[in-house]
Design a protein that fits this description.
six-stranded mixed β-sheet; alpha/beta; OB fold (Dihydrolipoamide Acetyltransferase, E2P); binds zinc ion; about 20% strand; flat; binds magnesium ion; Rossmann fold; binds guanosine-5'-diphosphate; 8 helices
Length: about 350
Amino acid sequence: MLRSEEVRVVRADKGAVLVLPADRFAHDLRDGDAEPVRVALDRDGLVSSRDGQRCAPTVGDVLDVDDGHAVLLHERRTALVRDSAGATSREQALAANVDVVLIVEHLDPDPDLGRVERMLTLAWRSGAQPVVVLTKADLVPDPEGMAADVAAVALAVDVHTVSVPAGTGLDGLRTLLRPGVTLVVVGPSGAGKSTLVNALAGREVMDTGGQRNDGRGRHTTTHRQLVPLAGGAMLIDTPGIRGVGLVADAAALDTTFADVAELAELCRFADCHHAGDAGCAIQEALATGELTERRFDSWRRLAKEAAYQARRSDARLAAEERDRWKRITKEYQRGLRGPGHPRS
Ligand SMILES: Nc1nc2c(ncn2[C@@H]2O[C@H](COP(=O)(O)OP(=O)(O)O)[C@@H](O)[C@H]2O)c(=O)[nH]1
Ligand SMILES: [Mg+2]
Ligand SMILES: [Zn+2]
């Protein structure tokens, strides 16, 4: 019998995951292309964690495997989650045990500030450190000026400007690739995430948006994948996540919008609606231009969405809890009747 082994998920599919031995990630890797191994999950595609929950493993998860089967999901240090459309599970983990979230946004077309704010909120909520990466600097005349505009909405976050074809800005990112550190790239399709992963890996690990030889459209990333880098860091590539449902977290919103949160503290009334109420610090800041309408709208939209998600999630949680008790009482009554008793 094989002893139980600790592994890291490099790719999660329905019913199975691809893994590499976890100790492989602890070393300075030189080969960079050890073959991941397929590990089976149970029939529901789930694996148990120490607290008795059963959960679908995601890329970056650490598992114990025994004889080719996943037997235990380790507690997630951090998790990038989005609101799932599913009726039962409230959140879907996009990546686990990540240290740095690289928020990748293109400079051409113009960066979408609202999207950066949304991704920042997602990142702060994950427990990992966000870093903004602005790509395609070679396509615009004033990348640094544009970066300053983005930095103005990415408070207390490093903003890097890169061009992969020109090879600029990559050294700054390489300082983040310390051994044992896990990074994930997020951002819209076409932003240059896979191109960046390949540039940092120094080899073509991921397909990028170039035209395919067979004329069947463009290569795009369709799955999330963890790429071990030669220096011992790990980089997770993701497909463009469209309309990521924001998982409610007031603290994450307050971090992303620390300027707005600070102003709200100054409003005369604690329950100020910031809509014409007397002594509203936010309305005053809008009037002086200290706060832009765009940022205020963005904050309001995300706060509303987060509140909606929280309510929905509470309702789902309550329904799940009811089901659980129904099941437990049924089992209990069955137990009272005891084995071998006829079912009446
Ligand atoms: N000019 C320029 N093009 C880039 C850069 N980075 C990526 N691209 C191009 O943008 C397209 C989309 O890149 P890809 O990495 O597939 O984007 P993804 O969907 O975010 O993974 C491809 O055609 C890349 O060649 C860059 O820094 N400069
Ligand atoms: Mg891609
Ligand atoms: Zn107010």
